[in-house]
Here is the input.
Amino acid sequence: MQSIGKMMERPLLISAILEHSADQFGQQIIVSRETHGPLHRYTFADMAKRARQLANTLSSLGLKAGSVVGSIAWNNYRHLESYYAVSGSGMVMHTCNPRLHPDQLAYIINHADDEVVLFDSTFAPLIKAIAPHCLKVKHWICLSDKTNTPAVEGIDVKNIDDLIAPHSQSFHWPDLDEKSGAALCYTSGTTGNPKGVLYSHRAIALSALSTCLPNVLSISSQEAVLPVVPMFHINAWCLPYATLMAGAKLVLPGPKLDGASLYDLMESEKVTISAGVPTIWMGLIQHLEQNNLKFSTMRRTGVGGSAMPRALIAKFNDVYNVDVRHGWGMTETTAIATMSNLSDSEMEWPTDKRHELVAKQGKSVFGVELKIIDEDGNSLPRDGVAQGELMVRGQWIVEKYHKADKTALVDGWFPTGDIATISPDGVMQIRDRTKDVIKSGGEWISSIDLENAAVAHPDVAMAAVIGVKHPKWDERPLLLIVPKPEKSLEKQQVIDFLSERVAKWWVPDEVIFVQSLPVGGTGKVQKGDLRLKYGSIFTD
Here is the structure.
C-alpha cells in the first residue's frame, strides 16, 4: 500500500514570492527607466509596501477575488507592483500587448472581463481609441504621478500614485488555492482572435523557480537582471517573479529598447543577465559595432521568441564574451520550456560545433516533457533526424484556453504547431512552424535554416524566408533581406553566398531587398503580411 508523506501543505503563491523577497532581500535594488524623468530606484522592501497599498486600493474600488485587472504598460516599477498586488489579492493580472491592432486589443479586454485597466501615459492615444469599445472597464488608471497623467477625452483617468497614497502599507494576503488563476496572457492572434491562457499561481511559481536553475538562466542574488522581453509578453518569461525569488537586482528598461539605450543601462547598472528576442539583440550588436564598444559586466543572455542566427550567437560568444542561452517557449507554456546550455565536455568542442549546438533550442527544463509525432500521431524516434510536430506536457503547460469548453490537448499532450527534431541526448531543435515550412517538389525546406544562412552574410542585418506558390514545384522559397546600414548588396552575391552553404534546391528563386520587415508585438517577423504582399510573385 502506498504511504503518504507527512509534510505541510502550503500553497505556491505570488504573494509568497513578494514577501520572501522583502524579508530575505529587502535592501536589494530595483532600477526602472521611466517614461518621464530620471531613473527610479528603490528597494524590494519599498516595492512590497507599495504593492500592499495597491492591493488595498483595488479592494476599495470594489474588486474581489477573481476580478480581472488589465495593463497596457512597459517594463517599469509601477507595472511590477501591479503584478504582485493584483495576483496576490486573488485577482487576475491581465497583461495586454499594446502592439496589437486596436480592434484585437479591445476584443481581449472584453473577452477577459477587465474591470480596471492600468496604462502608461505613452498609450493615452490608444486608450482613447479603445475605451468606447470596452464598456466593462470601470476604472482607467495611469501608471504615473499626477503631473504626468494625461487627459483622455471621454473617460475619467486616475493616477496610481494619488490613488494608493491614503491606503495602508499593510495587507493580509489571502491563503489562496495555488491552482487559482493568477495571470492572463493572450496569444498574438496571427490567425483569428487571440486566445487567452490563464496561468495559476502554482504554474508561475514553478516556472520562475526553474528559470533560476544553473542550467537555465542561473539567477541568484549575485546577479543584476535586465528583462528586455516585455512584461506583456508571457509575463516577461516569468523574470519579474524569478528575480525577486532569487534576490537578484532587477533593472527595468521602460519604453527605450533601442541599442544605445539598452547598452547605456547595462553599463550604468552593471547588468550581468538579460533576456529578449533576436531582433533586439541585432540592434544592440549593431550599436556596439558602429561605436566600437564592449560589455564590462554582461555575462549571459537568454534568447527566445524566434531562432537566433548562428552568426549572431558567434558574435556574442566570441567577440563580446557573452554566453547565449537559446530557449524555446510560448504563451501556452507559461515561459521557458527548453534551454540550451553547454556541458563541461561540450565547452571543449571546436567553436563552430559549439555555436551549432547553442543555435538549437536545447533540453527541456525539469517539469516539462517533449515528444515529436508524425501526421498520424505516432511518436517518432529521438535520433536528431526524424522531424515531426512538437508535443509538450508538464507542470506549467496549458490544458484549456480561457473560457473554452474543449481541451487544447491531444492524448494529454499540447500540440505546439512547431516542426522539430529531438536528439538521443534530448536536445530539441525547431525546424520550422507547420505553417512556415516550405514543401518544394515533394521535399521540405526549413525557412529557419535558410534565414540563418542568409544572416551569416556580413552585410545582411535581417532576413525572412516564405514559401510562395509555384506553378511547377508547388512552393519555392522567397528571400527578403534588410541590408546593414550603408551596405550595398546584389541578388547574385546573395545567391552565390547561399550556394556554398545550403543544398542547391534550397537556394531561393528570388531575393528581394527591403528597408525593413514587418515585426509583430512579440518581436517576430509577420510572415503572414509578407505572404499577402508577395504570395503571387511566381504566378503573376
